[in-house]
């Protein structure tokens, strides 16, 4: 049951979110009135063709981009309001990108503990204990002292996920986290995300991995030209033969 249906306030709600880039004739509307809810412990997966606005949607939630109009409500508070302290909001969220963005000159453990130490001012010992526990969880404790270029792509992405989770964010934003990986490395990252979802991690995920969306999503939101074209359970959105545009999109992905 959705948060709205159960009467609970979702952790995250987007209401009428609009975003465009450029001006005049070059103006491009990327998000055209998006409504979306993510309940606590839910996994909402956003799918759609390239350029449909998936990354932009995650970026406005993480306050990396401003919205032109609409609300981004975190626990009911509109965090898109320019008066809100963006750093305080970002401390409650964590985003993982397609390119893992690990610092190449820092060992894996130092990558994972950097934000806790520098941003959150945790003592080094406490940060390292939490960092090692998180690396253990993603199966990388044995790589804590390695540098990123000594890890496979899948391991680097798992390290990036450990880094995102170490401070205990309320919402994990995942933007095409398997797109840069060789096909044989995709499975290990998806398995980790499945395990996180089973633990109740609240997630908003943009992906092209339809199999993953089927396995992991409580709700699939299909974006098309900046609008929500379909939403529902994976079976409703991905498998219903009457949903012609969704089928067309899935055919193109094959
Ligand atoms: N900073 C920007 N300036 C101008 N246009 C942008 C900017 N960021 C994104 N866009 C445009 O907005 C549209 C949506 O981009 P976005 O990255 O959100 O799509 P996407 O669905 O995530 O695509 P993909 O699946 O290829 O990652 C695209 O047409 C893109 O070119």
UniProtKB/TrEMBL annotation:
Xref: Gene3D superfamilies: P-loop containing nucleotide triphosphate hydrolases
GO molecular function: ABC-type amino acid transporter activity; ATP binding; ATP hydrolysis activity
Domain called ABC transporter: residue spans: 12-250
Pfam family, one: ABC_tran
Compartmental location: Cell membrane
InterPro entries hit by this protein: AAA+_ATPase, ABC_ATPase_HisP-typ, ABC_transporter-like_ATP-bd, ABC_transporter-like_CS, MetN_ABC_transporter-like, P-loop_NTPase
Keywords: Amino-acid transport, ATP-binding, Cell membrane, Hydrolase, Membrane, Nucleotide-binding, Transport
Protein's UniProt keywords contain Hydrolase: yes
Chief subcellular location: membrane
Keyword match Lipoprotein: no
Gene Ontology annotations for the cellular component aspect, listed alphabetically: plasma membrane
PANTHER family: AMINO ACID IMPORT ATP-BINDING PROTEIN, GLUTAMATE_ASPARTATE IMPORT ATP-BINDING PROTEIN GLTL
Recorded family membership: Belongs to the ABC transporter superfamily.
Identification of the protein by name: Polyamine-transporting ATPase
